[in-house]
Sequence to fold (670 residues):
Amino acid sequence: MAVVFERPKALVDIPTHYCPGCTHGIIHRLVAEVIDEMGIEGDTIGVCPVGCSVMAYDYFGCDMIEAAHGRAPATATGVKRAMPDKFVFTYQGDGDLAAIGTAETVHAATRGENIVVIFVNNTIYGMTGGQMAPTTLPGQVTQTTPFGRDTNVQGYPVRMCEMLSTLDGVALAQRVTVNSVPHIREAKKAIRKAFENQKNGLGFSIVEILSTCPTNWGMTPVDALKRVEDEMIPYYPLGVYKDKTAEEVNK
Amino acid sequence: MERNLMKGNEALAEAALRAGCKCFFGYPITPQTEISAYLAKNMAKAGGVFLQAESEVAAINMVLGAASTGVRAMTSSSSPGVSLKSEGVSYIAGSDLPCVIINVQRGGPGLGGIQPSQADYWQATKALGHGDYQLLVYAPSSVQEMVDKVTLAFDMADAYRMPVMILADGLLGQMMEPVTFPEKKTDFIEKPWATDGHGGKRKHNITNSLYLKPEELEKSVVERFKRYDEIKAKHTEAELYLTEDADIIVTAYGATARVAKSAVNLARAEGIKAGLFRPITLWPFPVNEINEAVKNAKVILDVEMSMGQMIEDVKLATNCSKPVEFYGRTGGVIPTPAEVLEQIKKLGGAK
Amino acid sequence: MAKITVDFERCKGCALCTTACPKKIVAMNQEKRNRKGYYPAYCTDESSCIGCAMCAMMCPDCAITVEK
Fold:
């Protein structure tokens, strides 16, 4: 018998600090698999955020930088501009990318910064114990919306892929999820495409991944997968919002 | 060597190029914009990167990214913009990264004004951002000295893996003086800690300022402060001018020291034994040097373009061994030599 | 002939793998806990495993290795 599935080499062989059933682990693995398949671990520099994935620097085998909250796209810009031949990716949660770091995200995108952004959207601030995120769904109960997010008071969730897809600097804006095996396969394809775009110098590629937070959602991990399907996907439809490579083909 | 007549801000920029600065990230703000404009024109030619960021916050975090790959990186701004950078500076210090930050000070607080000021002394030397850390702060007082200190700042930043600030002001930034530049630097120290891609040749490097275990964070801070101790012991700088027999010592830095020096000369012409102590490193404050300067003095007159910030270090450094008086103008008003002379006379600087 | 190996100590007992198995032969241990206190997953019928690796793909902790 031969091994047909094992931990990718670009993922350090240590346990993660993530809660049981948190899909951060799946997303980490997909990024590492793509790095392995492209053979680029030695030429990749990752930038992690502030939030649950703050300690991703211990998990990825490539060189890693821990950025300030929301500033990963700016930090990644500095890395990529200094080392244009290296692969640079950020790994950010929704609070990091779509609240405190919105300006950095939008401007890295509109500059067409040739980086990959892995955007993990779980509609909540996980690390600090479950407060309202910019992506928290209307009605969703969190520590800071104990009666549910009231859109009259807290406004509406941000749809980043849709917003960013209007910018000329964006090569890829795609929303995927990892709540089932078919979705995981699709997510990996999107991540691969994002890294290929960087290789081909196409510009800013963002892959938004709908993820779970069983702990702060107050659900079992299995029920959390179902919430992605039933509540998140309807508000955040999966799909390709912008793809420069497809536009080239259609020309 | 070639001598050029150059505006302070442009000289700062050219000095950075000569020092091998590879990446500059900035955001427009008066009165330092010529630095950006100069580098926008000349950085690419020199094989470097100039990028106008979307904010001061983004600019300093771009510096963090570039510096972590091991290249020399710099940003510049003026007072309100430097406040915005404070977050990133704290992260850079916590991540033990080298970089150079230029502050061409203007009046504050708030939006303040656009005229020269020295009201960011406390910010630069005590509290630019949260946490246990220091910046090495140089306060040049001429265009030539700005060039020299930018050159030195990059070397010190690399050697001690820390952010270094050039604390200038609108007067120095806008004035023109003849300057000589050093040759372009080509040899740099090795940076085995750089996160520039491990190439399969080493374990992954991590640029980080997070330590969840208090003992580990304490260890990292203590290690950093050992480097600070070495800087304190070896790298303080000050100018002592006519201090040996002086009854009255004027203390001033940066552009104000030029005014103070004129006042000292005027006083001497009237037979008053005045001298000048000018710290060049504001952090670390030149403690030995000031005590040497004031040893025979009866009184110290601290002059600043602020309501009095450095005066606290003057008192601390001299252990209040002499009375310390203050004269300051603020809000962008520049004190004149005549005003300072009047203060010297008031303090009994009689013949 | 195929088989899965669950890293007993690495598994956090989240049960996501059980949702992915097309043969419904991945289940959670009900008796034995690992050192962290989780009940790890196991294969209830090794002879039925087809080595599709879906359980491993669903695992957030890379705790499952698949051989075929």
Notes: Chains C and B do not touch (no CB pair under 8 Å).
